Structures are given as structure tokens and as C-alpha cells.
Amino acid sequence: MILVLLALFLVAPAPAQTHDPTGILRAMEDAFASVADHAMPAVVNVTTTPRKTPTAGGSGHEPSERFREFFGPEFYDRFFKRAPREEARASGSGVIVDPTGYILTNNHVIEGAAEISVRLSDARKFTARLVGHDPKTDLAVLKIEAAAPLPAAELGDSDHLRVGQWAIAIGNPFGLDRTVTVGIVSATARTRVGVATYESFIQTDASINPGNSGGPLLNLDGQVIGINTAIVASGQGIGFSIPVNMAKEVMQQLITRGHVVRGWLGIVIQDVTDDLATSFGVTAREGVLVTDVMKAGPAETAGLRPGDVITELADGKITEVPDLQKRVAAHAPGESVTLTVVRDRKPMAVRITLGEMPSEEALVVAIGAESSWGLSVEAVGPALAGRLDIARGVVVTEVVPEGPAAKAGLRAGDVVLNVNREEVADVASFRQLLAVVKPGESVRLYVHRTTEGGVKEYLVLEKPAP
Q: What's the whole-number average pLDDT of the chain?
């Protein structure tokens, strides 16, 4: 019987197939529209009033200058600067993540704000309270109080994103409320974007523009997979979102503690270049090089030294600086971890108890002798030395806003060649030259400005009173 039925099936003509050329497109259309309908009520417009009184030169509340690079000078100047008498400006977007009124947004959206206002899709307006912010990930949590539960977006899982899957962005670009754009996930785990300290961005070609910052990136299920953060102004279709799993962890700590607690080694590190790999006895692009160890920090206590190359943390290999930073920060202070270190070309295990990462202010004090000057420096690497045709000096890696170095005009990327006519050989000699300066006295720096085509300038740096 089975053979007969099989024979009839094989000889029977195939049923006529109907072909709907618009069917797939309509299914996609319905999917996008469904996501927009579902998520739109949870997307909010965030407006800030600056803390300082504006002057003719600008708003008195401008996000970090690094965002000017990503948004482009034209958009940045138009939407982040304003006339002296203009009232509060639309800063960006946010997404309600809890019916009780918690909102996720970017730190740079609310940075420096004296007052934060939130407008919902139904036009209701609320004054928001800043629960906490984390510049290291560019995230912030706001809270509004409403009489009834608010529409909240569902948070998804960003750890299993696939390159090529659909991505939908909703926000307020250029003040155009609740704009929906569609693209794909172009890449995951993007680092060295230059927006935050801890970076593992989702890259997408869904259009993200100034004003989208803080809004959600969604999947086809309408779940939030990222918080939109930045664009590359010079590149079409290149935007970045903070993975929602990272945002969840930060948000939870901001709500419970008001700040984020991270593990800390107390070291200064750099990538192992091809040239450095040979001299330190490791494979190219393997591990990170310890360039300095902070006094009385966890690393010094455990016996780490400048010149050590950290190749593994616990059971995982370390390949670059952002990799080690993220993985150490993910551990709790007080937790013990094992590092694999190459010292004098020989691998060794170092057990270290992590400390708690200091606040920005405390970290500046811990960096070293130059910290009281409001800057941090590192040795000029071979690549930079070759490009600039210099043999010695130190490169400025960070300048504390409104600190002595900032007032002197120093900027990240400057190379200090000498101090009071004394040649700077390395970080140690730079610190020694500054250590003898008394409070209230000044020193003259000879600086190679890498950001201005190699111009050399003299700057006067004054040591502040204690």
C-alpha cells in the first residue's frame, strides 16, 4: 500500500504555485511597523538646561569635544551650541526601561545639566532626576515620577547578536521627534572608537544622527539591543550603540549605588606593537605591556613591574588594551584573579587581589608625580617616534579639565620634549623635573603639537598651591 501511494505521489502533477512578488516585502514592512508601534511609546525626548550661564562663545554646556569628531563640526555647532538667550535645548533621546519611570540615556546627553526635562510620546512632560551617570561607558539613568505605570521597552540580549541581522533605531535626530530608521548590525565588539573608556560597540548602518543619542537600537522582536551613542561624521552609515547587556549592568549599579564599582589593577598599559613584541619575547599582538605601576596599588602589592607583558587573565588570553580593561572592570573589587605575565621572556603566574577603581579625582592623584599638574603621560612609542622623527619625550595621554595643564594649553597628543631646557628622556625624568617645582612656581615646556602638523611651541605650566 505504501509503495502504491508513493508511486501515485511521484507521478501526480505538482499543485500550481501562486507567486506573490510583494509578499516578502509586505512581511518586512509589517515587522518594522510592528516594532515601531510597540517601542515608540517608550522612547522619550530629553531636554536639558545648562548648569552655567551661557556666554557669547557658547552654551556653557557642551558635550565632550570628542563627540564633535563623530557628529561633525557643522552638526555639533548647530545642535550643541546656542545663542546666549536661547532657552533649554533638545539634547537627545532616552528609553523608558521600567514602568516606574527609570530611563536609560547617554551621559553626554545630560552632562553638565542643571535641569533635565523629559517629554513622552503622548506629549506629557516631566522633570527628571539624575539617578547616576557613568562617563566611562557614556551611560546615564534618569527617573521620572508618574501617577500610573509608564510604557517600558523590553531589554533583549546583546551577547548573541549576529552580523547581518536587522537593527531598528528610534530617536529624535535634529529635534525631529521619534524618527525610525532601519539597517543591519554591521559589526559587534567595536573598540577604539574614542567615545568611552570601556567600549564594545555594536556598529550599525541604521541612520543615527545628532539627537539620536540615548535612544534605543532594537531587533525585530522589538527588544532593545543597544543604546545609540555616536556616529562617524565622515562615514555614511557608520553608527555605534552600547550593547544592552553592558547597559543593564551599569544601570543596575547606578540605581542601587549611584555609581559604578569596578575591579582595578592600578597599572598603566599599552598595546604590544610588532617592534615591541620581539624585544619583550612575545608574539606580535599578544598581550599588553605594563608601562607604569601605581604606588601602593594592587599591582605593586602583587609584584607586577613595568616591562611585564600580561598575556592572560584567568583562563582567557589578552590581545589588546581594551580587552584587559573590560575584563578587569567586570570583576568585583576584592576578588583574586591570576594573571599570566611574561617577564624577561619567561611566562609566570601572578595572583592579584583587585582593588576598587578610584573616582576620576582620586585616580588623577594616584597616577604619579605629574598628577598634581592635571595630566597623565606615557613614553613615546617607536611608531610615534618614527613618525615625528624624535628620539625622546613623553606624550600627553589625558588632560584634566580646568586643571593646571589644561590652563597652560596642553592637549592630549602633545609631546613634551623638555622642561626648563632640560631634555625629557622618559616618564621618570619628566616626573623628576616636575617634582622639584614648588607650589606657585612655573615651568616652561617645549612641546611638539602632533595635532597641528608638527608645530613646536613653548607653554608655561604653573604648579598649583596645595
A: 80
